[in-house]
Amino acid sequence: MRLSGVCFSALGLVLVACGGGAPTDGTQLANGKYTADALNVESTITATVTVKGHKIAAVSVKDNGNTYAQYTSPYTVVANRIVEAQSTDVDGITGATYSSDAVKKAVDLALAQARGEKPVPAKNAALTFTPGTYTGSGKGYGGQVQARVTFSETGITEIRVGQQRETAHVGDVALQTLPAKLIAANGLNVDAVSGATMSSFGLKEAVLDAADQAGVTNRKAFIDNTVKVQAGAPIEDTWDVVIIGGGGAGLCAAAQAAQDGSTVLIIEKNAELGGNTLVSGGVYQSVDHSLVWDIKKPTATSAKGFDGKNHNKVRATVGCVNDLKVIYNWSEEPFDAAYYKDHEFVAGDIVELSKHGVHPEYLQTLQDLKKEIKAYLDYAEPQLKKGTPENQLLLFSTTNLHIFQTYYGGLRQNTAKDEWIYGDYDLVKQFIVEGEQLKPWLMKMGVGFSDSQSTLVGALWYRGNSMNGCTADADGDGNPERYSGNWGSYVMAPLAVVNNANKHNRVMRETSANELIFENGRVTGVKAKMADGTEVTAHAKKGVIIATGGYAANIQKVLKTNKYWSRQYLSPNIGTTNRSSLRGDGIDMAEKVGAATVGEGYTQLMPLAYIADGAIAFGGVENVVFISTKDGKRYVDECSERDVLSLNGFKHGVELEGRRGVYFYVMGGGGFGGFGGGFGGFGGFGGGGGGHAFNGRDWSGKASALPELFDELGIKLDAEVVKNSIREYDMAVMDGREPSPIGKRHATGIIGSARRGADGQYDKSTYNIDDANLTIRVLAPSTHHTMGGLKIDLDRRVLDESGKAIPGLYAAGEVTGGFFGGNRLGGNALTECMASGRIAAKGVEKDNQ
Prior knowledge:
With 849 residues, the chain is α+β, with helices and mostly antiparallel strands. It has five domains: 26-114, Alpha-Beta Complex (Sufe protein. Chain: A); 132-224, Sufe protein. Chain: A (Alpha-Beta Complex); 235-286 and 419-511 and 518-532 and 580-597 and 802-849, FAD/NAD(P)-binding domain; 291-397, no CATH class; 608-780, Flavocytochrome C3, Chain A, domain 1. Helices cover 29% and strands 21% of the residues. It has 22 helices and 32 strands. The strands form nine sheets. Strands 7, 8, 17, 18, 19, 20, 31 and 32 form an eight-stranded mixed sheet that branches. Strands 24, 25, 26, 27 and 28 form a five-stranded antiparallel sheet that branches. Strands 9, 14, 15 and 16 form a four-stranded antiparallel sheet that branches. The longest helix is centred in the middle third of the chain and has 23 residues, at 363-385.
């Protein structure tokens, strides 16, 4: 089926009509090689067309910067179709319209050269419309974007955005800023908003839909019409600290530097601050000692928190004691890597791993942890013997447990089996200890917290801290404002500190840093360019902090550096949970001044990601089951590490719509409903209640209707096998025992339906699976976090290949390496980036005393 609708070539600088590039008559083409460029999403592409015998013999496509698989995967397929058809009038790739059309546009331009045609300079065309207001619709990142567009006889006079589900402070920024530019252009050829590419295209598609309804006289000209952007006068100024990147690490670095009395410039590539942190789950891992069991007061059920108020301590869950016993019996011998030369290393199997020792730098932590566990077992086991349910015990959680789980959760072997990797002890201990001071620091900024220690996918334990926005005076008028969600907690709280500290402090949005200024052996500033082309030279008196994030959206770099994942799983078509700006720019800049890197071969995959676009599917794992799309059975402990879940997804899942490792994430009770609503396109699951239609992300309905889902997806499964697998799991949960044959560390709820008594216990006689409401999400692993990056020391100075600090250069957050080895625990990234941002700022101040 031929694709229809808008065919933008890409990032918004140039747009092309879809119309079928005229069939090529071989006699019109001169033999030779011809090249031409067109714009794809976030980059330009170059098509090389080889003409032999006056026919198209070959087409190759090179991307000049974009490695986002969603946009690069169509190149070869579309190129081959052009050769076969001897025309650019070929089908594009479903879900990759923009990239498909970019290839066809570049080939059309190359073929024009082969026919001896001269390019015609672009010029806005005069257009006519049927006056009136029309409602158009386009596909954005989070779903359909509607726009009410008013036309006069000659052009657009007004654009009002209607219904949309784009992510707040990410995609919706495009919907606020683009209308004026589209009106000025009287067409669609304007830049997409940085960091909101798909939202930009969704609005453009809606405007084009409206123009079609208004009878635009020249559709191609409407798509090509543009408005010239004039660069401003060059900007050159000086600050104490210049920070590249305004995500979690950069904002915390800025706030700390401002609190220490420094002037600050934040250079942010996207249209708004927040980076990947803004679209994360928002939970960071760190022990709040007031909320957990206290070795000094083992029977205390409440304690004073950082706010000086009493808070009830949280309870354990079934499975915690078993994990603690494994650690308590962990061998204290030096780690025996030789054992795994002849035996398979199974990531996540800590029972086996515990038999083979510990690396010497973590031995003291293990020994101290064992003493803490012994004291806890002395408290817990007598109660368990009396029949007290484990979930009525107080939760055990200590700093040493966090350190040790970060160690063994990241201890991994590469695919060649000749390298082991794990977190640097000093870096791990430092970010965890410093992370425990984040809560009081943030609370002083007006951030609110829930009194909980939660968990999340791949976290291994219950020490998640959930924030609920902030109350802060971000505009400096003396009256604090309320800001909700991640936007309030991670952006506005630290930004208020920066804004109010010094009038010279500044944020430059939609500004791309492209070069570090290196003078006399020292980094002294940054060269950058604004979206309108304005050149920026920012001098730094004290230092430059790179906080640009990782490169999980740069699939080519992920593939090039990969040491961990089998190539049968990690393919160019894999999705990413990351914003498209996460490409490794900071690493590239630092390497040009001699910076060393560490651990780049290890990329974390997120098992909870939608197959359509790779976006993260927020949700827990304690009360869900993962079902194989090959045999309909549970296949993994859902509370395992993220790489364990992803690897097993590949092994037990099918390939669907070009995604490998597709599996079913099954929830009971109709799903999470409104969970994630604040994330717009990143959340919004829960299905349609009683309906059975698959909407591209999830399906909701009675278990008895499962065959309808399987038929719709073209997956051959026996619904009875699926229901029996769920039933076996549920029976174990209701009995208070670990599920079998596939165990689960922490299971907190059932999938089917059953009544519960006043004591919280299930009445098994009321259990039902056939009539239970299920929500099933169709997921597959996507790239999520790059553990490797710039090599740094404990002050976050960037090191060169000899291990010496590069004067004036610091780094924080995912742009660095050394913390997580081969796998990161869920929630640790936010802890590390915030703690490291503060440490980097303090390091700058320390070096300038």
